[in-house]
Give the backbone structure.
Amino acid sequence: MANELLSDDEIITSVLEGRTRDFEILIHRYSGKIINFINSMTADRDEAQSIAQDVFFKIYQNLPYYKKQNNFSAFVFKIAKNMTLNWLNRQKRTVFFSRLLGREFNQVPFIQAPTHTVDQEQSERDEKIIQNLRYLPEEQRIALILKIYLEFSYKQIREISGWSIPKIETLISRAKSRLKKNINLQEKNSGFVLKARKK
Amino acid sequence: MNCKKVILRLSAYQDGELSLPQSRELERHLENCAACQSEWEACKDLVGNLCRLTPLAPAPDFSSRIMAGLRTRPEKKFRLLPSLAYTLACLMIFISGFLLEISANGQPATAAQPPTTFSAVLAESRELGLLAVHDSTLELFSGDDHEK
């Protein structure tokens, strides 16, 4: 239990000294956040678990290069962001070449697998949020997710993404106004559909 | 602060990224502007909705799979090996090109020797059309004692 109170930097020192088992504390500390970040970006629950696993392997491999300045969180999410973007790019390429070859892409991207743990209404609401997020440009999506779901400050987002603070502010502001527009449009459309059904 | 500025900074205000005086100024504007107030309410609703996303929990065996993977995964000891291989390949291509050049011409191509005397410099410049040098001028400098 005492291990849980250790700082990230202390745990990393311990892992680098050969106590590999301590790496599990870091996994417990960050796995939830990383999986949710990747899931919000990819909208694919299974892939989120799989990519997150690779993220931890990558973190472990790169531990000797981490400079201890109490910003392990930025180090972790920089890796998670890059690996997620790589996955998204691979998906885009796969879809592009599948279409080019006239083949149907067998896995529809950005569709959530039905969940068995939450009720139907909640599941639909989650899917709607994820669908709306996926319409955002990648940079806006990253900035918004890091802010809203992971509650990073603009300074921390700068460390993770390498963007300037004014750029981050603009990205998040644009993401929010775009989401508002999309949601309003969807509500209007669903209103029209309901009216048409009544008629 | 006018409405346009307020709308632009609402997001940063919501994220708690404005300084205290900036926040106070924005709040004063919101108290007196119904349009901006409704925009602010919409912002709050949006973030409230986004935050209702159910968090995804890691699979029960998530950490144990990683730990098992770390034990079986070979460590990357030779990180420089791929770049070293690329460098060697480039070097081999360069050397083979050089050897081919020798075998084709009989001897390696060497750069032309630069002129060593002042008169030679003048003569070369005249040949290249860089300078208009009279013959008498060339003769004037064409002695061993007029070295560059």
